[in-house]
């Protein structure tokens, strides 16, 4: 079974506040960020995992996905522990995001979740921050005209 390593990060400026996700699919050398509106940091963390899994499936295709192990690395201890069934999900806004990740897992041979130190997640973090910066710049530009 082929392994694909994905790093994900979500962030918000304020909690909730303007938020974005960042993903670095190391094995496929793909990276992207996306502004996702007003969200909490934890909602953004889950959105990053969802976006990364969707992107991997789109790149490798449905058949290859079934023979692929995706190793999801994140600096969110909460999301990692919830996805590994160590913590319960008590926040009602996170429950549907958890189920979305869980449903996406069915498309792959195996999906695992690992907590990593923030220093090892710099690429995904940079993508999320760039998306937030770009959205803030666009909003400032719009207010000028």
How would you summarize what this structure contains?
With 145 residues, the chain is α/β, with parallel strands linked by helices. The chain has five helices and five strands; from the N terminus they run βββααβααβα.
What key attributes describe this structure?
alpha/beta; 145 residues; globular; 5 helices; Nucleotidyltransferase, domain 5
CATH class descriptor = Alpha Beta
Extract low-pLDDT stretches. none
Give the N-terminus to C-terminus distance in angstroms. Answer: 53 Å
Briefly note the CATH topology name.
Nucleotidyltransferase, domain 5
Q: How many strand elements?
A: 5
CATH-scheme architecture:
2-Layer Sandwich
Q: Could you name the CATH homologous superfamily?
A: Ribonuclease H-like superfamily/Ribonuclease H
Number of DSSP helical runs = 5
Strand content: 25-35%
State the order of secondary-structure elements, H for helix, E for strand: EEEHHEHHEH
Number of domains: 1
Shape: globular
Task: Average the pLDDT over all residues and give the rounded result.
Answer: 96
Task: Specify Rg, calculated over alpha carbons.
Answer: 15 Å
Helix content: 40-55%
Largest sheet: 5 strands, mixed
Record the strand order, biggest sheet.
Answer: 3-2-1-4-5
The secondary-structure class comes to: alpha/beta
